Amino acid sequence: MTRRFLFVLGSSRGDGNTELLARRAAEQLPAGVEQRWISLAEHPLPDFEDLRHDSDHVRPTEGPAALLLDATLAATDLVIASPLYWYSVSAHTKRYLDHWSGWLRTPGVDFKATMAGRTLWGVSALAHEETVVADPLAGTLRNSAAYLGMRFGGVLLGNGSKPGDVLHDTEALARAKTFFGQDAPPARFPYEEA
Ligand SMILES: Cc1cc2nc3c(=O)[nH]c(=O)nc-3n(C[C@H](O)[C@H](O)[C@H](O)COP(=O)(O)O)c2cc1C
User: Fold this and answer.
1) Ligand 1 pocket member 136 (CB < 6 A)
2) pLDDT tens digits for 90-130?
3) Which residue out of 84, 93, 129, 156 has the highest number of ligand 1 atoms within 8 Å of its CB and is therefore the one to mutate?
C-alpha cells in the first residue's frame, strides 16, 4: 500500500525550526511515499465549538476545516510538527486536535475507524536544552494516538530558538535521518504499559 504522509505544521511562523527539522526527516522518505504539507497558520481553523451533546456536527465542505479533515482522513501517516509552546503543543496544533473531537461525532465521517491502525508521529523544536520538558507534548500526542487506536512513532526533538538554530543541533539532524524508518508500535496509554 502506498504510504501517504501528511505534515501538519503548527508553528505560528513559517520556515521555523520545527518545519526545518521535519523537512530533514522527510528527505529520507522513499520517492514513492506521498508527502503533503499543510500549515495551520496559513489555513487557520475556526475556534472549536463543542456541539457533541447538543446537535450533530456537520461535515465541513469548504475552508480550512474541510481541507484538514479530508487530508487527515487520506493520510496513512500523520506528522504533527508543533513547536514546544509552554511545554505543550502550540495553540494552532491544539485547535486542530480539538477539531478531532467534532470529527469523531460527525455523521458519515467514521473518523475513529479510519484513523485506527494509522501512524501518528511528532516533530518539535524547543529552546530548552533538557528535552524532558517536552514530555507534556509527547504525552498529548501519544495519548491522542492511543485514544484513536493509532500507532505512535514517537517525537523527534530538536533544539533552537531563532529560525535556523536547529540546523546546528547535529544530534537532532542525525536522529532525523532514521526517524521515519523506525518501528511505530500501537500507541498505549501509560497505565497500559506492562
Ligand atoms: C509562545 C511561545 C512559547 C514557547 N514556550 C517554550 C517552552 O515552553 N519551552 C521551550 O523550550 N521553548 C519555548 N518556546 C521557544 C520555541 O519552542 C522555540 O523558539 C522553537 O524553535 C520555535 O519553533 P519554530 O521555530 O518551529 O516556530 C516558546 C516560544 C513561543 C513563541
Assistant:
1) no
2) 999 999 999 999 999 999 999 999 999 999 999 999 999 99
3) 84
